[in-house]
Amino acid sequence: MEPKHLYFPSADIHLDILLPASKSISNRALIINALSGSRSEIRNLSDCDDTKVMLRALKLDQSIIDVGAAGTAMRFLTAYLAMTEEEWTLTGSERMKQRPVRLLVEALNDLGAEIEYLEKSGFPPLSIKGKKLTGGTIHFDGSVSSQYISALMMTAPYMNEGLNIILEGEIISLPYILMTKNMMKEFGVEVNFLTNRIEIAPQFYKPVDFTVESDWSAASYWFEILSIAGEGEIFLKGLHQNSYQGDSKVAELFENLGVAVQYFSDGVLLTPNRKKIDFFNYDFINQPDLAQTFAVTCCLKNIPFHLKGLKSLKIKETDRISALKTELAKFGFLLTEPAEGELSWSGEKKDACHFEETGEISIKTYDDHRMAMAFAPAALLFPIAIEHPEVVSKSYPTFWEDVEKIKKGKVN
Length: 412
Description:
412 residues, alpha/beta, UDP-n-acetylglucosamine1-carboxyvinyl-transferase, Chain, 2 domains, 12 helices, 19% strand
């Protein structure tokens, strides 16, 4: 696909945006709903690639399931298929074959699963012989992807002995574990979570009517846009103040970056509050998907920063720390990685890298939807070209249509 060319200085930003449904909630709801045996349709499902992959896979009409670049689907389906009788092959894109699953596979095999690696040890593709799992007690590293833990939790009620997970070390992305816990409860399963121990007895999910809320991660790019613009207003439909999503923290964090939030029954209203701090310092261990938004926002607003809790960013769609350093350097911002899982900008700059012919700065997206969306707001200040803009379909398929409304100053 051709690059997306964007530039809208002095834009009139008065917008109503219908955000996509939460991918994280959608995919959990689909797995739990399938385990419950419900024939009820989950309302307001995400239209993103990851959820489409999950919907196709859960039909169980093919023994070879290709999840493409959908990391959530890979982790959740590994656990789900491990206890679904039949023999399965679970594979994905070339990048997916580089994303580790060893800890999840070893945990499942310890619980009675039969999963083998078909190519490189520790990585997809996987051969899975589905069967009833024994369950029991496992020790698990809490500092790796919370999707592993959520995958184990959701399938735990159907293990013979249930499951006790003892989390060791630092627990990252805790809100996603709590999201899983709360959604399991909504479908009738009790989860005891005390400090570092998750206890799930053998139980059954009950079918319920369920509606997915809008995505706070997707909302973050609109906070970024209003923060950089410094004027106008944006109404984001479908967000809830009392949300399952840890990324709802974005509203509080942007208070110090120039954005005020008002909550309504059908969404939130963003308006400028004129606040601007001199230095942004935050540990994103519980909200790693927001890191790109804040790194780009702070640079474009000339606010030095120090971001921590980013270890998981190295095993996402790309190494997001390296990608941020490379792409922000094109605008002249020289970022450093003071320690593993950290990203910092002291205010040091160099000349920006414009193309002589077009005057644009070209942004590489690394097959990563969040790189594309986090850099799009730079078009308020610079002519830019976003390479492979189609990557946004992973979580926000209508993102570019919504962004074009900025240029037009259009209200839905």
